[in-house]
Amino acid sequence: MPSAAEAAAHARKFVREVLAADDQPLGAECVDAVLLIASELVTNAFRYGSEPGDSLLVVVLTTADRVRVEVHDPVRRRPAFREEAGTRVRGRGLHIVDTLATRWDVDDRPLGKAVWAEVAR
Predict the structure, then answer these.
(1) How far is the C-alpha of 75 from the C-alpha of 53, rounded, in Å?
(2) Dist CA 95 CA 116 (whole Å)
């Protein structure tokens, strides 16, 4: 998908469609967690991992015990936690991902990175 301000909304729609088509339906809380994680990862990729004209790749993998969301972008710079501040509106994305995900990490790619997170079913 194009790296643009509306990318997070497009990603949520895509992820929701993939999860709805899965053979093993997820509970509402799990769906909500996966959608929020996808939104945060795509937002970070748009803001910090891409330039105008770049594309992002969103991958959703499901197994019997987990759902994995990957967001690929063309910048090798790894995401970093920002110090929490009550006055700042931005900078909480990775804290949200860290709280909701069973585990998450970053994989380097030849032309960028993939940030992924897994949620237990």
Answers:
(1) 13
(2) 14
Side by side, the strands of the sheet bearing 57-62 are 57-62, 66-73, 112-120, 103-109
Whether 84 has a pLDDT exceeding 80, the answer reads no
Q: What confidence tens digit (pLDDT) does each residue in 54-83 have? A: 999 999 999 999 999 999 999 988 888 777
- Which pTM was predicted? 0.90
**Domains in the chain, please, with CATH?**
7-120 (3.30.565.10)
Q: What mean pLDDT is predicted for residues 92-112?
A: 94
Beta bridge partners of 104: 117
- Report the 10 Å Cβ neighbour count for 50: 20
- Does an H or E element contain 22, and which? none
Q: At what angle do helices 7-20 and 28-48 cross, to 10 degrees?
A: 150
Number of Cβ within a 10 Å radius of residue 114: 17
pLDDT confidence of 5, banded at 50, 70, 90? Answer: confident
